Amino acid sequence: MAIDEQPGRTERQSGAYGAEAANSPRGMERRTRNGPVGAEWQGEVAITAVDARSVSPDRGAPAFGLSRLQDWSREQSLWPLMMGLACCAIEMMASSASRYDIARFGSELFRPSPRQADLMIVSGRVAQKMAPVLREIYDQMPDPKWVIAMGDCASCGGVFNNYAILQGVDKVVPVDVYVPGCPPRPEALLDGILKLKERIGKGQA
Amino acid sequence: MAVSAERLAAAFPQTETGVSADGIAFLEVLPEQLRAIVRALRDTLLFERFVDLTAVDDPRREARFELNYLLYSMHEHAWVRIKARTAETAPSVVELFPGANWYEREVYDLFGVGFEGHPNLTRMQMPDDWVGHPLRRDEPVGGEPVDFTVTRDVYGT
After folding, report:
1. With an 8 Å Cβ cutoff, is B132 touching chain A?
2. Runs of H (alpha helix) within chain B
3. Which of B16, B105, B12, B20 is nearest to B70 (CA)?
4. CB neighbour list of residue A32: distance below 8 Å, 6 or more residues apart
5. What's the confidence (pLDDT) of residue B133?
6. Does B142 lie at the interface with A, CB-CB under 8 angstroms?
C-alpha cells in the first residue's frame, strides 16, 4: 500500500511533504533519493525550481574575478545556525566545546538567527509539525547557504519510521552533506563539515 | 502503597473493582458515572491529585476505547485507577481537575475520543489538518517502506 493511499496524510500533502511545488502554499521543493526505495520512488525527477543554486550558479561572484577569494573566505568562515533539535544537538554542542573545538575550523559562533548564519546543521529528528518551521527558517537564511543533515533522523528518519517523524529532512530542504550516526561522534560531524568546506573552497557546493 | 480494592468496593458499590498488575486498585465505571465517581474520589476520599489519563484501544469490542484515569492521594500516599470503556465520547473532568485539560486533548488527538464539556478540544501532537487518529489499532504505523534484506527475504517486500 503506497504511502499516498494510507489514511493519516494531511489533505494538502501527497506522499513526500510538499510534493508539488506549484500546488504547495509555501512553494516547497521536492528532492528525490538516489536509488529506489520501494517501487513508488522509481522514475521520479528532482524538482529544484526554487533551489538557490540553480538561480545563481556563479553564487554571486563579482565581475572582476575575485571568486576564488570569495570561495576561500566563505569556506573559512562558516557560521552554523543553531538548529539543534534533539540528541544530535548534544553532539553538536560537544563538537563546539573545547575538546573537539569547531571554532578552529572557522565556525567561531553558532548563530541563533538565520539571517546571520550560512550553514544549517539540522541535528535531530524533525517532526511533521516542525517541518514547515524548518523550511521557513531555511528560507530566511541569506544566500549562499548550505545544509548538513546530521544524524540518522535528519538523513532518513532514523529509527523513527512512523507517522510522526519526517523521513529525512531532504524532503523539505536541499541537503549538501549527510552525516550518518546515532548520534554521530563530534569527529564525524567535523569530518562532514570539512568535506563541505572542501567543496565550498573549490566552488562546487 | 495502594488503597485496597475492598475499601473501594465498599465506597462505590455500583462499580466493579480489582487490582491491576502493578498493584494499583482500579474501579471500572460507565462513562456516565465518570464525573460523579471522580468527584466523590476527589472530595470524599481525598484523591486530590490528577496524575494521568490514557486510553487503550481494542477494536474487537463494541466499546473499543478504555480510558484509564490515575488519581493520587497525598494523605494516604496511594494511587487509584479508574477505567471507563467508551465507543466514542466521554464526559470531561476538566472542571474537577484542570490538569486533565491537555491529557484529554491528547486522547482526542491520538484516539478520537470526544470529551463533552472540554473548553478547547483540538489537536495537539499531530498537525492541525491531520486526517485520522494515529494510535488506533487499525491505523497504519506510518513511515515508509524500507528495503532491508530481512524484509526482502522473509516477508517478500
Report:
1. yes
2. 5-11, 34-43, 101-111, 149-150
3. B20
4. A41, A44, A45, A46
5. 92
6. yes
pLDDT tens digit sequence for B120-132: 999 999 888 888 8
pTM of this prediction? 0.72
Residue of A nearest to B145 (CA): A38
pLDDT for res B13: 80
Chain-chain contact of B140 with A8 (C-beta, under 8 angstroms):
yes
Element (H, E) at A146: strand A146-150
Distance CA(A129)–CA(B125), nearest Å, equals 8
Q: What is the ipTM of this complex?
A: 0.73
Terminal C-alpha separation, chain B: 50
DSSP secondary structure letter of residue A142:
P
Q: In angstroms, how far is the first alpha carbon of chain A from the final one?
A: 37
Distance of alpha carbon A170 from alpha carbon B82, whole angstroms? 45
- Chain B: nearest CA to A21, how far in angstroms? 19
Residues B108 and B115: their CA atoms lie apart, in Å, by 8
Q: pLDDT, tens digit, for every residue of B78-102?
A: 999 999 999 999 999 999 999 999 9
CA pair distance A76, A90, nearest whole angstrom: 24
In this prediction, what percent of chain A has a pLDDT beyond 90?
Answer: 54
